[in-house]
Amino acid sequence: MVKSIIYTVAAILACLGLFIGVEIYMNKQFDEFHGALEILYKKVEDKTANREDGYAVKSLWTDKKSKLHIFIPHNDISYIDYWLSEACGLIYCKEYDLALGKLEVLQEIIKNLPDAYTLKLENIF
């Protein structure tokens, strides 16, 4: 009886540790990507962004998404891909005003997406 309780408590603690570790990891990945997006946004706002700036952020996202596929659904990742590709295409065409709109949406997605997968009661029930 005592062994069962100890094993159950140990399993619960291991799961909580895993969930907390995943949450910290995801937040770190999204914070780094959000920082890169902010830099790109400022360059687009100043109309100094070029194709390489957009593709540098896209390359960073490609690296991040290869690891995040484990934790978040593919649809959410492809949604970010879509908005980032749109923004990069507009930067390439030097349509900075339209690119700003796409980047704002992308920043909002990046800011809110990790919260959808955190360990909160509203996400469990």
What features would you describe in this structure?
This protein has 125 residues and is an all-alpha fold. It has one domain. It is built from five helices and no strands. The longest helix has 44 residues. The relative contact order is 0.13. The model has no long low-confidence stretch (mean pLDDT 90).
Taken from the alpha-carbon principal axes, the silhouette is elongated
- Span between N and C termini? 31 Å
Number of domains: 1
Number of helices: 5
Give a short account of the largest sheet: none
**Radius of gyration, whole Å:** 19 Å
Task: Please provide the ordered H/E string of secondary-structure elements.
Answer: HHHHH
The proportion of strand residues reads under 5%
Give the averaged pLDDT, no decimals: 90
> How much helical structure, as a percent, in the residues?
over 70%
Low-confidence runs: none
The count of β-strands is: 0
Structural class: mainly alpha
Give a topology summary:
Elements: H1 2-45, H2 51-68, H3 74-92, H4 96-112, H5 121-124
Helix pairs in contact: 1-2, 1-4, 2-3, 3-4
In short:
The chain contains 5 helices and no strands. With 125 residues, the chain is mainly alpha-helical.
Key phrases:
single chain; 125 residues; mainly alpha
